Automatic annotation (TrEMBL), chain A:
Keyword field: ATP-binding, Nucleotide-binding, Transport
SMART domains referenced in this protein's UniProt entry, alphabetically: AAA (SM00382)
Classification via Pfam families: ABC_tran, Wzt_C
CDD domains named in the record: ABC_KpsT_Wzt, Wzt_C-like
MF terms in GO: ATP binding
Protein name, entry field: ABC transporter ATP-binding protein
Species the sequence originates in: Methanoculleus methanifontis
Family: Belongs to the ABC transporter superfamily.
Domain ABC transporter span(s) in chain numbering: 4-246
UniProtKB/TrEMBL annotation, chain B:
Keyword Cell membrane: yes
Biological source species: Methanoculleus methanifontis
Protein's membrane topology: Multi-pass membrane protein
Protein name: ABC transporter permease
TM ranges: 33-54, 66-91, 112-135, 141-167, 174-196, 231-252
Domain of life: Archaea
Residue ranges occupied by any ABC transmembrane type-2 domain in the UniProt entry: 34-252
Amino acid sequence: MSVIDVEHVEKVFRIPHEKRTTIFEALTGLLRPTDYETFPALRDVTFSVEEGEMLGIIGENGSGKSTLLKILAGIMRPTSGKVSVNRRMTPFLELGVGFNPDFTAIENIRTYATIMGLSKREINGKVDEILAFAGLETFRDAKLKNFSSGMQVRLAFSTAIQTNPEILLMDEVLAVGDMEFQQKCMDVLNRYRNEGVTIVFVSHDLGSVRRFCDRTLLLNHGEQVALGETDEVIDRYIYGRIAEEPVEIGDPVEEAPPAEEASSGNGRVKITGVTFLNKFGAESSRFNAFDPMTIRIFYSARERVVDPVFGIALYSERGEHLYGTNTELKDVSIEYITGEGHIDLQIDRIPMLAGRFLVTVAAHTHSGERYDWQDKAYSFDVIPTGRDAGLFDIPCLWRR
Amino acid sequence: MMFLDRMKTLYGYRNLIWTLAWGEFKQRYKNSVLGYFWSLLEPLLMLVVLYVVFSNLMRIQVEYYQLFLLLGIILWNFLSRATSMGLNAILGKPGMVQKIYFPREILVISSCITALLMSIFESLVFIAFMAVFQVPLSANLVYVPLILVLLFLVSLGLSLALAALNVFYRDVQFIWAVILQAGFFATPILYPVTIFPESLRDIFLLNPMAHIIISARDTIIYSTPAAAGSLLYAGIVSAITLIIGYIIFAHYEPRFAEEM
């Protein structure tokens, strides 16, 4: 049974060229028509959420995720279309709505819990529990303004999770706080999920979305791009249009020309571009951790060049040298090259966990004379899929 | 039918309305050391100044003029405070409007209740004055709750309209401040309406606040029953104000979150 139905929802924001914010302006402007731009924040979004399901919503900044959430929460009305919500809904769009710095912890708990829809009796029974969970028992009667921001967030979170939602809307709440706090958030999310609470979860943290969400909705510029199995939708998000336009072989893709100073060599062989191909053979700059990847180096040789060596080096964003290899080290010999062409480095499994990585590419002779050398001129991002910490995955097992 | 549903919804939020109103009330006084004392001093100082000026310069001859004046000031202060606070009830709470949903009129209602709490507190001064002057009390006091309800409804109706308009037109608050200032002198607070000739008097009596204040004085200070006509007129005007105020509020309400 679906508990949220969204049918053909559109949201258009009107952005007037000159904003009339006073009666005087409104009166003097009566004769002139108002010029305004329209900004479609959501276009024809249709989906439904089943009872007990956890739906993820992902997309770039400005893709309409938060607008959609606000419409679901009833904070904004759609320009057209219909939204129906058939259960008690609790939005976690921001923690600590209505917190008052001049009030004590207890007073703020009461106010905030009331705003979140708890009854007086429920609140009275839970105040101690809330303080204990936040680890703030000794600060019951301290004013909120004397709390650190971390303490305030903890207090707000502990209060918010006392609600008994049937539908929970979560927007990036988890993005704040330290590791321990985020872990607590995840535990609570899991608890709600196990209790059968329907959850709509907006996040940039694709790892969490992948771990928790049954289905995922992908928005792009307000359009509903994909809706379905989380893994497929995240692939679609990371790799763009799946396998629709595989890169044609031999077609040097226009990359931003590497900066002059970063490139050096005698130019007999020019590296004209580097592309990163995903598991569907399409060009991408973002990759799931542990997915396959192909690094394609396009070159152009002015004349016939005998026995060149191609190499790459991998750096972390901070410039630490992580890995380097070349055709010579891998015992690959290239008889000669001439004209335009490309060479691929195939990686079966990206071992990095997360982050941005810089790539240096080079073409040189066996004796080390450089044809071309482009220092950290290319980059790609790795999106986490698991929860391990650090830069690299080390295949391992726990035993006892 | 829709109206009843709405009332039922609002009743479900009574706890929130009260929590917000009480919190605001406490905060108003918490920040100064003398706290509650100041709020008693304010109407007293106003009373002293106005009393000295009007009883000596204007030579107004009214029985219990101090009480007459003080009651007028307190009632007018309520309207003035409720609408000034109501004006900012939406605009002053962007977090609550943009991040969470509840019927928005709750913010306006609770700010009017805060104003009411403050006025009830102020009226302690008035009660003390009544005791000092040994004003006889009468059964006519039964009218008082009704009069106060009418006053509250007028204020709420105005606040709803002003709160909504202020989100879209930011100069409403300045215009309203001027109107309040003018209203203070145009309403029979400092003087009895009888100082005007009959023909002019009717114009003053178009103002529902005039009826509310006159009725309150009659019943509380002068032990006379409130004029039925006055109550009826004030009742009709306050009902109309509330309905129009609510219509204006409901018209603008869907766009609050975007406009702030």
